[in-house]
Amino acid sequence: MRNESLFLNTLAFEFPSETKTFYFTLTDREDVLLTKLSHQLFPNNIRKIFPELSNGENLYTSFTRKLEGLTSLEINFATENFALVKRYFNREIKHYFTTRDILVEPTFIKDNQVWLRNTTEKPPANCAIYDRFTVKVNFNQFTNTPELVLSYDRKAKVYSNSVNAFLAANEGATAELFNRVVHVQYFQKGDRKITKRSVTKYDFLKEKEDVDYNNVYPIIGHKLAAYLGFNDEEEEPANQLQSKNRYTKYHNKINGFYNKFINNTDFRKLIQISNNGFDKARPLQIGKTSAKSNQLVFGKTSDGKNAIDVKPQRGVNNGPFSQPRRKNNIQMFFIVPEGYKKLTNDLSTYLIKNYKNLFKGLIHYTAVPITLASKTFNIPFTDYANPLAEIEKALENNNWVEGVKYLAIYLTPIGKHAIDKEQRKIYYKVKEKLLNLDITSQCIETDKMLKVIEEDKKVDEYGRSKSNFAYTLQNMAIAINAKLGGIPWRINVPDHKELVVGVGAFRHEDTKIQYLGSAFSFDNTGAFNSFDYFHHDQTAELAGSIEEAVIRYANVNDKPGRLIIHFYKEMSEEEIKPIENALHNLGLDIPVFVVTINKTESEDFVIFDTGWKELMPYSGRYINLGNKTYLLCNNTRYDDDSHRPTDGFPFPVKLKIDCPSDNTLQIDTKTIEELIDQVYQFSRIYWKSVKQQNLPVTIKYPEMVAQIAPHFNAGNIPPNIGNDNLWFL
User: Fold this and answer.
1) Structural domains in the chain?
2) For the chain, which terminus, N or C, has the lower number of CB atoms within 10 Å?
3) pTM for this one?
């Protein structure tokens, strides 16, 4: 690795060299605000002053503030319960910012999130943008020292008009649109006017007295964004192939915050952070995935050997690893808005033949002929807002020919991310109807497609004809091949029979219900044997499906040597116990390894490489954070310097490796390296896009199943398509 210089977004600090005096009592007080402590936060030496205190009782403290009636106790931070020390530091950090008239919100784990008004970006109409930073007090399990983790979170948009003003100006709007709000309160203390700003849920305000709703401002959430007609997510680049470098943006944000608020004498009076700035990664922390772990196998070259490449976008030009089986009469038809029927002529030419001599037609990516069905099979519709009835009627009236595998290209005016939830349901219902008829489908959002095609009529900065739609067609082609049962590419590893279970989750905003999706693989190449989904509390059903998978695996391959579970969060005892019981019932005494994989890219810990101007570390690099937790860089920056901005700049993913079947087991280095390698490899077989993903498909595919399937009739996946079908791509 050339000129590599890795550092984290952490700031090491030292505990005070001398003890501090804290004050405690067993009873709360009404005349002064005390902090209640549960037994997890009790000082180690608390029974020195309260010998009869039990873990079931509460304790109250003013921390270092001396109050009459409270008992003093010397606290040595270096040897003390870190949870208590963290609570103290969090209190001090909050006070540091709030006394500077800065909004601070506690996160769900009681860290401080600091809100700073962003005055450099243009906000949406009637909104203010806030940059949000989390200052987390953490104990570094690798170095056994305390540290601050400084992270830059998503931006927040706050409506400029108060709740009262908004409801008065928008007839028909109700308080149901509000989720979280900024509550501004004014107090008089002597000659001083004090302003207190806090973030809270709108529902919580009804429990307070004398709330002035002229001083309550809505934070833009899903419902309010839909009502106002704009997205509450960060804006994406207009060009779908343009990728923002989040590393440089993130780095600039936290550096600016550090220099303005942290790197000064006042803050160091609270916490003795190092003068060296952000922490460099230590050599013993740094690891690397195996040399060939990024290699993928594609179709055969002219010498009869399979092409090997590390980039899907380049490798797919060699054709697929394998073609769809038992399908060689595939006919394509279009479901299209009436006003765009002529567009199907051009689109069919692109799909069957080529586009600008870059996309070489579907056959190049599927290795089986795909032809156009008779135009009588095409389904034009006139109701753009709700085409379901027209499409269903036409599908029922079409004379489908036995032995033909039909492929529907659906030019939809409604995307799966449509703001209107009723329209989103229509999108899924059309997909379900096609699945019921065993028709493979590929959807294209019509307006987005037209924008890209129109943009391709222009030239780039070098005078070359633009060709971005070729990449869209490439993505469509590999997804179509996978849905038909082919394999666009596979991991370049020797076949190794191993049972890998992936569990991902998706929480539906409409119903507030979380669903779990599962994926089962019987080897390490990325071939999946079945998919399913459950309610989040159906742990017994999930365990039962794993038990069935073990039985099916054993019927073909003998018993597995180990069970590997990729889980979207840390597994609780309640979740792992039914799985252990299922294995016990089968008489299997095998280790169960659980790799917790953050569903979203890690934003609490981030690793930077200042040896490269773009700051993104090399792909495959990982950092040991201690306690069997790792930060894995999963991107397309390789030694050959072939990374392009269009490849993207994904953040690292955070992994935690456990063996809950034997908590006393010391997981050896070889096993850890194998498990990290496997996560890295499984992220390279995402057959929805030729762009590299940073999350493994063992998490991503189940999440996609859990996102779509609940929209189907009675929440059931059509049984005719089989559990191993990649219909959700």
Assistant:
1) 20-75 (no CATH), 80-280 (no CATH), 323-483 (3.40.50.2300), 495-721 (3.30.420.10)
2) N
3) 0.89
